[in-house]
Amino acid sequence: MSLRLGQIVDALGGSLEGASADTQIRRIAPLETAAAGDLSFLNNPRYQSQLAASQAACVIVAPAMRAAALARGGCIVTDDPYVYFARATQLWARAQGHTPAAGIHPSAVVDAQAQVHPTASIGALCVVERGAVIGAHTVLKSRVTVGERCTVGARCILHPGVVLGADGFGFAHERGEWIKIEQLGAVRIGDDVEIGANTCIDRGALEDTVIEDGVKLDNLIQIAHNVHIGRHTAMAGCAAVAGSTHIGAHCTIAGAARIVGHLQLADNVHISTSTVVTHSIAKPGQYTGVFPMDDNASWEKNAATLRQLYRLRERVKALEQRLQDGSSPQQQ
User: Fold this and answer.
1) Catalytic pick from 225, 250, 270, 279?
2) CA-to-CA distance for 183 and 168, rounded, in angstroms?
3) Highest CATH level, class, for 103-287
4) 0.85 exceeded by the pTM?
5) pLDDT tens, 144-167?
């Protein structure tokens, strides 16, 4: 299977230069491994040396890299090569027929009181429970579970093993025992949401857990009950959000980050890898809280020092106060 460069440019735009529109493209490949007949892209100028050596038939580049790209061969010039590359992969998948067919796999279990749009695709061994709603052109890969009364919007993709609507972790403590709090809410997923494999989103205790339009969640993420995630926020693998936290729009949460419960994160907040967020964040920006990795002996020494920081702080404050009072440390 192949596409002509002209077909790609007609569909996606951009300026084709230094190559014929009739050139056949057989695959999309990285710069360093691309061969004749391949389409590649350059997003970061640091890889310009790879551009010069690449054997790709055509490379997607920004206007600033046009001259360098033409020096080696054909190129498609566009304002954002990475976005163009993303749209090219979608075009390629459609051309190869990778888009899942609408319908319900024979092994799926769909409750008679669930609503599945005729254009949706429900994969093998999925479970769609009573009162659940699956929107138009949404794809449930294999073994996805959508619990009672949970709703999934249009054009969503739920990868294998996703669970929507498991009970939230809610218990009341009474005389050494835990009394279950029935989780009476549901999960509401907006449009154009993608959820990675084995990610769990718990139903709300009373109100719904909400994932707004355009949110992207990676694999193995835990979203607890009553969390609200704003539109177009992206969260990488193994992150976790505790209950009743509200995350704003256009945020990014890096892999293995942790956000404790009942917090508010403003729009455009960006959390670094492995950071533990323990308080609300009202101001947009990048936030990091990582104790740097080191060899174990050094790490233990540093950890021991950290445990003394409060005591050291108090000693410094006392010293500063004495200096302000006009006495020297020796006089004390």
Assistant:
1) 225
2) 6
3) mainly beta
4) yes
5) 999 999 999 999 999 999 999 999
